[in-house]
């Protein structure tokens, strides 16, 4: 990856999710893979920890079967809170969060793919979600005011950024004092083989951009966060193995719950 610029990586990621938003390819587990074409988004999300009630509570078309966990389930959201979703896609996690924060709360989704923003806004209108809005922007440069957010959620998106320290600095900027992170993402458990590490499609597929737990802890500490916990989920190997068939990718990455607080 060293010979690729950050912008080349972003463009490749943006194009992948543009295609998914336009349904030019089938959405699949974690980040799209051909092997998962036979699973519906509902079946995939069930494996990621979403309940049947959650899956039936969102507008049709908002669940694209993406992600590696269920961040709003770990966020302990309260009525009246302001929630920010980094990489909001079709709006799935935003709509679930909006039910928890209620009419007095607000949910903001940020995504760098225009087609995803259009899809999410259409889904919000279809479902009557008046407390939810979607903004076009990069998670490294959030279109969100300083100290305006109570909780930041994200589902298997930060690994896609070529500048993770900048993502967490921006998250810190927009969080209120006492604000918290509740993130599902993948982490490295072993060094990736060169053929995966240097594969741009593996990067946009949520694999080769993963960081180690120690690296993420260091980034979070340097950004100013406290009460940092990163909890790997070994059971996630059961669906991660399908992301890159035949490569034993589950031996190198797992899903994890990442939590931290801005003091």
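^ structure tokens above, recovered residues below v
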């Amino acid at each position: 990856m060293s010979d690729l610029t950050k912008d080349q990586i972003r463009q490749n990621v943006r194009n992948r999710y543009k295609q998914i938003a336009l349904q030019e390819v089938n959405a699949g587990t974690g980040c799209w893979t051909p092997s998962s074409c036979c699973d519906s988004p509902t079946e995939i999300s069930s494996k990621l920890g979403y309940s049947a009630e959650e899956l039936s509570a969102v507008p049709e078309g908002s669940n694209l079967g993406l992600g590696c966990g269920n961040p709003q389930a770990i966020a302990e959201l309260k009525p009246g809170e302001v929630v920010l979703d980094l990489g909001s896609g079709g709006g799935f996690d935003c709509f679930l969060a909006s039910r928890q924060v209620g009419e007095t709360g607000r949910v903001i989704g940020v995504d760098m793919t225009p087609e995803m923003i259009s899809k999410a806004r259409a889904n919000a209108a279809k479902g009557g979600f008046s407390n939810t809005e979607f903004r076009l922007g990069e998670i490294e440069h959030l279109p969100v005011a300083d100290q305006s957010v109570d909780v930041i959620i994200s589902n298997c998106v930060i690994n896609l950024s070529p500048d993770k320290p900048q993502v967490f600095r921006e998250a810190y900027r927009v969080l209120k004092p006492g604000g918290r992170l509740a993130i599902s993402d993948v982490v490295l458990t072993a060094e990736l083989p060169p053929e995966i590490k240097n594969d741009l499609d593996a990067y946009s597929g949520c694999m080769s951009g993963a960081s180690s737990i120690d690296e993420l802890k260091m980034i979070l500490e340097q950004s100013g966060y406290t009460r940092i916990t990163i909890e790997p989920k070994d059971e996630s190997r059961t669906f991660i193995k399908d992301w890159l068939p035949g490569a034993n990718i589950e031996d190198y990455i797992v899903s994890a719950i990442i939590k931290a607080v801005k003091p």
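The beta strands are 82-86, 106-111, 132-136, 149-155, 175-188, 211-212, 226-233, 253-261.
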